[in-house]
Amino acid sequence: MNPNPRRRPLIQHFLGITASITGRWIVLILGSLLLSYCFTLGQIPAAPLFAGVITAIAINSLGGLTYPRHFSRAGQSILGMAIGLMFTSAALGAISGHWLPILLVTAATLILSLVSGLLFSRWAQIKASTGLLSMTAGGAAGITAIAQEYDADVGLVAIMQYLRVILVMASLPLVVLFVFQDHHASPFALAGKLPEVSWGGSLLLILLGGPIGIWLARKIHITAPYLLGPLLVTLLLTLLKTSPTQAIPGPILEGAYLLIGWQAGLQLSMRRIRQHFRLIPRALLIIIVLNLLCALLGIFLAHLVGVSDLDGYLATAPGALYAAVAVSMAAHGNVLFVLGVHLMRLLMMLLIMPPLARRMLKAVGKP
Questions:
Q1: pLDDT tens digits along 18-44
Q2: Cβ-contact 255, 77 below 8 angstroms
């Protein structure tokens, strides 16, 4: 006897909906929005991206979808503009007197990411480009968005990037509580108001600035043009204080995260997920070591520039930018310094690691 006679018709109805392409798109969109809302309540950064990956994996197991490339490129363009708008004069001013030590520490972080990526690719027997992008310390959404352009396994890159982000997020409050419990407030607080959001200005920037940035990036052969072209154009407008908006509206940015997440998730299947599970213990070990080494670099940077050890640690945390800034605000730390260092590293990672992945791919070939 079936204890739940009503369940079978519901399942059959759901399977009937997902039997068509239109039905799967509807379930993908609605499921992603619902899961994103739940993740947002749990304060997971870039919740729509993570929700999009998981929902797309589920849809893939029900028959999959053909994902238009211009969807992910639109997501990259919007994400690039959102990053460019973060480079305000206040954030850059907080690090302007310490360019050399910050660049040195950022370069050291990049080298650590390179070594970690090579080690992971050899240990896990995966493509060098996949290993390198999987272990890039910072810019999870941007790295995931452009992984396909470098013949990397986008699904695996997404899983490993967000494994790193979750680990950093979980460790930040614990480290602050038990390691920096004697931290004293820094005299540098977060100055200024929240950025003003203009829907009209944002649409103008997206519809005009985005295509111009992509065209210029392709003209001068910049790698990852759909992300970096709009990013650099918006960064220039921000520094010149001529941008039509100070930030991209939340719903538009969340939509971009969904577009990027769907791209990664629709390339994964449950069979591939099971294959990736064997890599997680190895990846965790490498990520933990990378986090510890970045923490040591942060303390070294703090002593070089004269900020607190907590500010140095938060500034060099390998990812979770928003979480690091939030913890810095709660601890009354030097928030602008933390934000400025993260932005500098983010820009360097996005500019240097992708072309490096392409060169390595050509040098070592495909395994």
A1: 667 788 888 899 999 999 999 888 766
A2: no
Torsion, CA 61, CA 153, CA 40, CA 343, rounded to 10: -170
Q: Provide the β-strand partners of residue 247.
A: 197
pLDDT tens digit sequence for 255-277: 988 988 888 778 776 776 777 77
Query: Which band of pLDDT confidence, cut at 50, 70 and 90, is reported for residue 367?
Result: very low
Whether 73 is covered by a domain: the verdict is yes
CATH number at residue 272: 1.20.1530
DSSP 197: B
Q: Tell me whether residue 2 is in a domain.
A: no
Q: What is the pTM of this model?
A: 0.68
CA dist 29 and 138 (Å) reads 27
Expressed as residue numbers, the domain containing 242 is 10-364
As a whole number of angstroms, the distance between CA 124 and CA 353 comes to: 20
Q: What is the DSSP string of 137-164?
A: SS-HHHHHHHGGGGT--HHHHHHHHHHH
| Residue 119 falls inside a structural domain | yes
Instruction: Report CA-CA distances (Å) from 366 to 125, 146, 147, 298.
Output: 11, 18, 15, 35
Q: Is 163 exposed, middle or buried (0-12, 13-18, 19+ CB in 10 A)?
A: middle
Quote the tokens at residue 63. Answer: 């028959």
Tallying the residues shown for the chain, one arrives at: 367
| Between residues 337 and 151, the one the model is more confident about | 337
Structural domain count of the chain: 1
Tell me if 4 is assigned to some domain: no
Q: Residue 355 corresponds to which amino acid?
A: P
Distance CA 243, CA 31 (A): 35
